Amino acid sequence: MSEIDKQLGLRPAMFIGYAVGIDFLNSVSYPAGGEIDWLADGEGLLTWLVQAGLVPADVVAEMRTHSFSGELDAVAEQARALREWFRQFVLRNKGEKNIASALSQLHPLNDILSRDECYGMLFPINDSERMREHGFRCTSQAGSLSLNLRLRRRWRGAGSLLLPIALELARLAAEADFSLIKSCEGPTCTLLFLDTTKSHSRRWCNMATCGNRVKQAAHRARTKETP
Q1: Which one, of 168, 216, 187, lies nearest residue 17 by Cα?
Q2: DSSP letters along 93-109, please?
Q3: Cβ density class 53-67: b for 16+ within 10 Å, e for less
Q4: Is residue 213 assigned to a domain?
Q5: Same domain for 82 and 141?
Q6: Which residues pair with 152 in a beta bridge?
Q7: Contacts of residue 8, Cβ cutoff 8 Å, sequence gap at least 6
Q8: What tens digit of pLDDT does each residue of 103-149 get?
Q9: Model-level pTM?
């Protein structure tokens, strides 16, 4: 959690979905019967977008400065509506390996994507950095320079904050195996995740919380049954 988050009293969001699109769906949770919504208002949306790595901190600072009263809250409301609409899409289609036949259900997402203004830019990058970006171990800090193509976005007002979210949802629909999207087996848990384990046997959003609670409940039940 950053110093800004601590000052604002905001708890960090959960990123356990193994896909940013699923983490977006998990931006609302219901622990112990109460709701925690990280997108409850405009400030919450900005904080979540930074924590998710979807919007640069300097863009967020500019949005805070130049947005008129209530504008960011209105965008947060749109984000919540997008979240619940896409949640229903995921719940209808999870368990399916190929969801190409469900394309007609995604027209609202394509409508948002059509507003995007992304462009590519070339940047110099050290070969050592490139290796580390792709998960290779590199002990040397020195290396020759090469070029890297990165996407940049023109941020046209507060409404454009929805664009990187929509892109991640589209990426999930296009690239994820929906048969591996699962709901946590915790009795009261509403969180989803993409099961990337080798055996595809993941059951919990977090073993330290939901997994342990279920195991402790089962242990108490067995103990009570023992004469």
Answers
A1: 168
A2: HTT-S--GGGGGGGHHH
A3: ebbeeebbeebeeeb
A4: no
A5: no
A6: 119
A7: 43, 47
A8: 999 999 999 999 999 999 998 888 666 545 555 454 445 567 888 88
A9: 0.81
